[in-house]
Amino acid sequence: MKDKKFIIGGVIIFLIIATFPFWYNQGKAAPVPELELTAKAKAAKVCVRSTEYMKAGHMQLLDVWRDSVVRRGDRIYVSPSGKEYNMSLSKTCLDCHSNKAEFCDRCHNYASVRPYCWNCHIDNPKEKT
Amino acid sequence: MDSSRRRVLQLLGLSSLALTATPVLNAFAKEAGHTEEPEPIIKPDKKALTAKQWAMVIDTRRFKSAADVEPLAAVCDTIHNVPHLQNKRHEIKWIWETHYHNAFPGEAGRFLSEEVEHRPFIVLCNHCENPPCVRACPTKATFKRESDGIVLMDFHRCIGCRFCMAACPFGARSFNYRDPRPFIKKINSQYPTRMKGVVEKCNFCAERLAVGQMPACVEASGGKLTFGDLYDPQSEVRELIRANYTIRRKQVLGTEPSVYYIV
Fold this sequence. Notes:
By secondary structure, chain A is mainly α.
């Protein structure tokens, strides 16, 4: 055990390097983004589903919508509250949420997800017409 | 293990008790405020037009020059955000004009009436009843819709392998070799564009039929094109097919095109 000090020293150096990102970034977590609602979205008060549901599961909802509209042609969504919606990303979702930069992008950037919806779907119907 | 009669009976009793546990737990879960929301319902639009197999009849006698075709193609391109690329190899086509010899190869007789030979023939996806493109697609991105026979594209699923383009005997499919957006004159915000790397083609205006409108080219044609259900003996298309001599493109291949030409 004559190399004891080298071994322990090495282990300590390893631990410091391995945990470096944790203590270096401590307390510097990026703040949760604040989402801005457009006047229209504020006035509507409720989305297609509850806010909690939309926050957690809008991607699953959109996936169901897409399959239904594209593959079966069924494009009316009757929400649990009984209201009917046209299942269209551009015409329904982005009609209310016409502020993609402050609404969609902020959260997507924070979560580091890069959905490619807007490669094809037009982000803001009102801006263009 | 001790397997006396007494022990076995005890175990049986305990197991039957355990069977009742799930409903009890569910009842507790409900009381704790986890009530299920009613399920949302998805349904078609009430105004939607339906058919067993949509079909189109093109009265070529009423097309005299390219000027008769242009407005139909233009309205389609505007509605569906079809880009106009100068390079012929990158061209995107949904509905376009072609020569008789190209539309009906092998069927063009010699010494034909000049009038027929020089007519502009409108061509588009034939929405075949037996579509070879659908069989070729490895991802089921293109499919024949059971409900109305339209051969549709799910652009989300297309991986751009172009097997469908090789399979289609009518050249009705185009591939986006480049990002199409910069080549669209005026973007229609009501319809998505496509992205680089997907195949596209005419969709018989499925998005218009779903809200009770006729296809854009039919609407713009002023009666030169007729659209309807091929399997409804009373429909307008059947009436026209019955009353006039019609031909279809490359019928001998057995794809059963749904676009009929009155010549």
